[in-house]
Amino acid sequence: IKSRRIMPYKVILSISINHHVYCALVDINDYFPAYRHILKGFNMHSPTILVTGGAGYIGSHTCIELLNAGFYVLVIDNLQNSSEESLKRVADITGKSVTFIKGDVRDKELMKEIFSENKIAATIHFAGLKAVGESCAMPLEYYDNNINSTLVLCQAMEKAGSKNLVFSSSATVYGDPETLPLTENMPLSATNPYGRSKLIIEEMLRDLPESDKLKKTDNPWSVALLRYFNPVGAHESGSIGEDPSDIPNNLMPFITQTAVGRRTELSIFGSDYDTVDGTGVRDYIHVVDLARGHLKAVQKLLSKESIEGVQAYNLGTGNGISVLEMVKAFAEVNNVKVPYKLVERRPGDVAACYADATRAKMELDWEAGMSLDDMVRDSWNWQ
Ligand code: NAD
Ligand code: UFG
User: Fold this and answer.
1) Cα 279 versus chain centre, distance
2) Is residue 194 flagged as an active site residue?
3) Choosing from 194, 284, 313, 354, which is the catalytic residue?
């Protein structure tokens, strides 16, 4: 019995006694190894999606969308920035459970095992480290976690012939934008190790279809690079969301913690930018919209018109919102006070950054539908 593995199958056991039929819905796990092979047959019409880092902020919201769309979801997460509780809440929200494996994506043996024991239709790779400031202080950890995990994952995928991948990239790969809005074919650059790790991974993934051409394979890679702008908000239930344990780096958790009284005031970094009111402008996107973008990308990968090779997609609303506009919307919609002071610019910040998300609309049939009011309401509801 290998206790760390739980298989994603349930079965109805029924027994008839004196013309009464008794049924039970039973989880099949490693205690019933023989059933696994039989039950794989039933799995044909509900493809399994592997979600690395699925217990985290964006991953847990994406699990909800995948489960609601009828997919089986298998999560691997080492829980270094999350807890299994988020997956229990995903199950409460959807009425469907996720199969969870606690482990590290850099563990080659484990990844090999996952791909040999499950027929994975597509993988969404969220797992990684994501704090810009921290990445400057500990670049090797960032390169190790972000790049190595992708390398080990892709090796396991290639070996298993499971070559549909959605990768969590970031608008940070555009560096300091020369023109706005940002389209996917604008120049790429990195200003910190976190951004550089994303850029290196994007380039690494672009080599894979090239190798397919040389091998003349009939099972080529299909990869969607999703470049997120600024994810905010939480599920409307208020039961899952982002919960930074340290002082928040990002604007929205700082606003919510100030409004609830955990911080005395928000520092607004810079009021002399060439923007609508002098404060920084970003493309904030509701995390549920972002999660739906992942569902659309998976559906595209599994469709007849799948992605040929590697394609990048901006996931943003296309609207630039300033820090002051965000603070005002938050205070008005939630009827709370957000004390703030204007301070110096934060080093490394750009004045403005927002997306042209036309490609995602045209090719993935996705566009952000939630408003700024939804974002600030759901962020507060979660706090
Ligand atoms: P998160 O930290 O909430 O989620 C990441 C999850 O991955 C966590 O649950 C963590 O425990 C897990 N993890 C980390 N390293 C792992 C490893 N080696 N093996 C297994 N599990 C591991 O972060 P998030 O905000 O949900 O971000 C998800 C992805 O999206 C990241 O790759 C991040 O770089 C990218 N992204 C996030 C943002 C953002 O603002 N949140 C913006 C752009 C891109
Ligand atoms: N800001 C403040 N005060 C704060 C925090 C932020 O004024 O306490 C301002 C920033 O100066 C910026 C805006 O709010 O103008 C947004 O800042 P965030 O830190 O929330 O977000 P960034 O745009 O700097 O970066 C985020 C993620 C990156 C990701 C990028 C693009 O942190 O990982 O979005 O996706 F790469």
Assistant:
1) 28
2) yes
3) 194
How far is 45 from 49, CA to CA, in rounded Å? 12
**pLDDT 10s digits, 226-285:** 999 999 999 999 999 997 778 888 999 999 999 999 999 999 999 999 999 999 999 999
Say yes or no to pLDDT of 177 above 60: yes
Q: pLDDT for 200-224, tens place per residue?
A: 999 999 999 999 999 999 999 999 9
The amino acid present at 269, given as its one-letter code, is F
Q: What is the β-pairing status of strands 281-282 and 352-353? A: parallel
- Nearest residue (by CA) to ligand 1, atom 19, is 104
Q: Which structure tokens are listed for 365? A: 């049939």
Q: Is 229's C-beta closer than 6 angstroms to any atom of ligand 2?
A: yes
Nearest by Cα to 229 from 166, 275, 162, 184: 184
pTM of the model: 0.90
Which pLDDT value is given to residue 246?
A: 81
**Placement of tokens 């590290």 in the chain:** 104
